[in-house]
Amino acid sequence: LIVNYTIQATIIGDNGLPVGGDKKIMQKTIRVKTLNSNTNISGLAQEVVDKCKLIHPNKVKDVEQQLYYLQQRQIEEFGQEQLINLNSRNAIEDSIQSKEFENEAPSIENIEQYIEGLYEEMPDKINSTRNILQLARVPENMEILIENEALMSALSRVLREDGKKSMELVTNIIYIFFCFSNFSHFHQNITQNKIGDMCLRIADQEIQRYNIWVRDLDKLEAKCKQNPGNAPYIKELENEHKKFQAMLKKQDQLLFGKKKNKKKIINN
Fold it and tell me: Which GO terms describe its biological process (predicted)?
């Protein structure tokens, strides 16, 4: 989205009257990266207006119309199946191999920057949620964070729309709300954002993810048994087992808050 605005500077003389000034036409680009057929356009439009102070609140409908146009254009260009491939193995592997970023220590003063990161690419979203999680672990920051409606709304939306794309992203957001859940007077905020319902859906999603991996590994193991000594098959099986173990560690961290040594049981 492109926001056009004007900055006008006026020089006031000793008599209180303007004696000169300058006017400059500016543009601000708002990058929206999570548009798909499941996106709540009305909610996203409200978030954009809440976050960008350059847009007047009465322009929500205009923003909504532009977002709808972008949504339809993306669906027409990429196709529904390509735009949302929730069960693809590639999405699983991307979440396992997510790139780590080194950043400065999180600061509550940078919260607006972290919110903006929730509208960027996946690495930026992960980095922003990681910083917000560090802030949420400090009790003094909790009131500031949970009263930031733009932040709470953005976190809920990212969890709902991108939860199947990155396990690290999901883990960060779940633990942010877990920090809030330790204080009873924050429970209403958690309920309003439907975090409990999304947690149940995520648990079911991870069970399905596990079952898909086990089924695929069983097929690959059967192929190796049928072709003993086949080096490419054996190598592929070893690589898949490594990815599977990495996925299990991330699942344990997400669902149990710790890492376990789990192995797939093979029935002879």
Answer: cilium organization; microtubule-based movement
Report the 10 Å Cβ neighbour count for 74: 18
The candidate with the shortest Cα–Cα distance to 91, out of 145, 163, 194, is 163
Tokens of 128: 């922003």
Cα angle 123, 178, 139 (rounded to 5 degrees) comes to: 95
pTM: 0.49
Checking if the pLDDT of 6 tops 70, the result is yes
Identify the pLDDT of residue 92: 39
Distance CA 116, CA 148 (A): 13
Contact between 124 and 88 (Cβ < 8 Å)? no
Task: Report the alpha-carbon angle 212-125-82, nearest 5.
Answer: 50
Q: What is d(CA 137, CA 227) in angstroms, rounded to the nearest whole number?
A: 52
- In the Cβ-directed half-sphere of 154, how many Cα atoms lie within 13 Å? 28
